[in-house]
Amino acid sequence: MSAPELIRIVSRSSPMALAQVERVRAELAALHPGIRTEVVPVTTSGDRWMGDLAKLGGKGAFTKEVDAALLAGEADLAVHCVKDVPADRPLPAGTTFAAFLKRDDIRDALIHPGGLTLDELPAGTRIGTSSVRRIAQLAASHPELECVPMRGNAGRRMEKLAAGDADALLLAVSGLERIDRMDVISEVLSVETMCPPIGAGILALQCREDDTETIDAVSGLGDPDAWREATAERMFLHVLQGHCNSPIAGYARCERGGDLSLRARVFTPDGKTVLNAHEWAGPLDPATLGTSVAVTLLRQGARELIDSIAH
């Protein structure tokens, strides 16, 4: 199969998204020095809208325009954060994931101008976040703290912090690393303290199904462990059928010997009810593991909990 001369890469136009594209371009150049790449930036409805994402329909707010450019033939390859790609429905017809890149850090970071840790924050401290996952977990572990709505890219949120709109922020470690702002981190939170979102730290490469040239060219960038982890996590979310206001968290992990596990949690928004599941794959494939963990949580009442949350 001949390699394409040019691959046009579509992505969100935010600084972090463009930094992610540069990683893909660098890895592709190392693998196929003869292939040229071109960036096609788009601004998504999720980037334009600073209000409640549920009012935009929630899921897919950061991917619709990227998918449209790919399907229209305006680009050959889309770069997505897996956590932004809806898992409760199939990928847009005619597209497929060609690769999942090696996973970055899945943890959250606290940013506090005074360098305090989460446990050191005084009662009433305002945490800037609009993530229902973070809000529920903070309500469960640190009910004395106050969450204030805050959206926008990482740079914009840090500007809002400096302007006094909040006293501290929670942001993804991987995102801060991508924009070279690890210097602002006061504390990296353990996954036990703040369970990550499904798909955290994984970049997915999406192509049109009939574009075998591009698929063959980029599939070599894929990481087998990231594929297994993403597959388990996305199947878990697919079976659970959560909505954009349901606090769901979890992560799969491939151990050095190849064993795969999946830990997942479902919360009420006030953090007062928490459902937990943690299973090892054993002979199960990743998708079956995701299904099994979802069924375990459904048996605990996850369906009723999710359906009771307004959206």
Task: Walk me through what this model shows.
Mean pLDDT is 91; it is low at 53-58. The longest helix is centred in the first third of the chain and has 17 residues, at 15-31. With 311 residues, the chain is an alpha/beta fold. It contains ten helices and 13 strands. It is globular, with a radius of gyration of 19 Å. The chain has helices spanning 15-31, 45-48, 64-71, 132-141, 154-162, 173-178, 212-218, 224-240, 286-299, 302-307; strands at residues 6-12, 36-42, 77-81, 95-100, 108-111, 126-128, 146-148, 168-172, 187-188, 203-208, 248-254, 260-267, 274-280.
Keywords:
311 residues, alpha/beta, five-stranded mixed beta sheet, globular
Give me the Rg, rounded.
19 Å
Q: Treating each run of at least 4 consecutive H or I residues as one helix, how many helices?
A: 10
* Major sheet characteristics: 5 strands, mixed
> Roughly what is the average pLDDT, rounded to an integer?
91
Query: Helical amount among residues, as a percent range?
Result: 25-40%
- According to DSSP, the number of beta strands is 13
Distance between the termini: 47 Å
Structural class: alpha/beta
What assembly state would you assign to the polypeptide chains in this entry?
single chain
Strand order of the largest sheet: 2-1-3-10-4
- Beta-strand content: 15-25%
Characterize the overall form.
Answer: globular
Order of helices and strands: EHEHHEEEEHEHEHEEHHEEEHH
List segments where confidence is low: pLDDT < 50 over at least 5 consecutive residues. Answer: 53-58
